């Protein structure tokens, strides 16, 4: 093999690795095309009523960002509501704060519960207002729309996607801990 052939071969390999699509970190529901996290969680000796009260307490414990319950069905063991969390995304030398809103659904039975997280929205926040109140800049936008945008800031979109995924996984762990 000549040195030019080897160089061409190595360039092709390098090109294949650099143009490969990034791994999808956010799960997408095939029917709705929305980001969707869901899981069934077993809870030893967890009666439905107790799990229901734990889920309600989880909504209430957020302080200023406490969730809003939209469906409260004790008889069928269902709670649906909205909540939000603070998301910080590093962009070059600065950190940009966002409010990540979402809908959460709890379904409880004896010894198990299901949760689902969907309808994620993102809103950029102004840093000086962060400690007292969220100062709204643009309207909430669906997270899927922001991440799909083909703008020049694809690196920032990847950072945003990774920060959102990491925060959502931490939220899931918090939910599980609160329910056990």
TrEMBL record:
InterPro entries: DUF4468
Pfam families: DUF4468 (PF14730)
Domain DUF4468: 37-121
Alphabetical keyword list: Signal
Residues in the signal sequence: 1-23
Domain of life: Bacteria
Protein name: DUF4468 domain-containing protein
Record organism: Adhaeribacter swui
């Amino acid at each position: 093999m000549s040195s030019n052939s080897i160089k061409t071969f190595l360039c092709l390999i390098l090109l294949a690795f650099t143009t490969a699509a990034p791994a999808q970190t956010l799960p997408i529901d095939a029917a709705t095309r929305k980001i969707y996290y869901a899981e069934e969680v077993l809870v030893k000796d967890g009666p439905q009523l107790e799990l229901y009260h734990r889920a309600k307490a989880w909504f209430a414990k957020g302080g200023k960002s406490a969730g809003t319950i939209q469906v409260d069905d004790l008889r069928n063991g269902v709670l649906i509501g909205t909540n939000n969390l603070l998301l910080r995304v590093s962009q070059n030398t600065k950190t940009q704060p966002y409010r990540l809103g979402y809908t959460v659904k709890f379904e409880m039975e004896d010894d198990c519960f299901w949760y689902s997280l969907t309808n994620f929205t993102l809103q950029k926040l102004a840093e000086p207002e962060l400690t007292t109140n969220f100062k709204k800049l643009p309207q909430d936008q669906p997270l899927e729309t922001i991440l799909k945008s083909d703008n020049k800031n694809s690196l920032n979109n990847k950072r945003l996607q990774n920060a959102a995924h990491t925060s959502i996984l931490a939220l899931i762990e918090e939910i599980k801990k609160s329910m056990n």
